[in-house]
Automatic annotation (TrEMBL):
InterPro entries: YceD
Classification via Pfam families: YceD
Domain of life: Bacteria
Region (Disordered): 192-214
Protein name per Swiss-Prot or TrEMBL: DUF177 domain-containing protein
Amino acid sequence: MASNARLDHRNPLVFDTHELGRRPGALQRLTRTIDAPRDLGIQGVIGVPEGAPVELELRLESVMEGVLVTGTARATAEGECVRCLEPVELELEADFQELFSYPDADDRGRVIAEPGDDAEDDEDRFFLEDGLFDLEPLLRDAVVLALPMQPVCQEDCPGLCSECGARLADDPDHHHDAVDIRWAALQGLAGSMTDGEKDEMSGAEAGVDEKQEK
Ligand SMILES: [Zn+2]
Ligand SMILES: [Zn+2]
């Protein structure tokens, strides 16, 4: 989707290229720390919490067609180990590069795609709007690519015990023999009860017999 909404220069993810100028070869470096937008990362897996700081380092280079944006984003991502469900924190470094074309670049030399025609091609292209560009889609793609699809707390996390759910990394010798102990206890109990009952019963019978004889 080409962006239709006008860019707002007050949005921290919108950058201004006016200072750079349109002379090819001109360079500008800038850094900015922003609050992470919502859902920055892989949803339900790992991501940068909304509002957490994201450090941006950008290099803007004026080229014939527009502005080439190269940069790095650094932030701390939070998620959950897919094996043992413990919280996972990850220092994230995501690189990106994209050309933002001048809107009128198409007027010179290039074949203009009719709206709706060749829409897929258009989706992949980014344009400057009044000298501004929106870094957000670029940042989102870069962050997702830099994050693991299956984060783990440690490379060889053994996960959880299938019997009781205990975290095996905390207790490597974890095993279950509770069933055997219970079985042994039941057997012992059954044995002693049988002996006692026999004695009581025989004693009672004897007593009754004595009373009847009198
Ligand atoms: Zn784990
Ligand atoms: Zn267990």
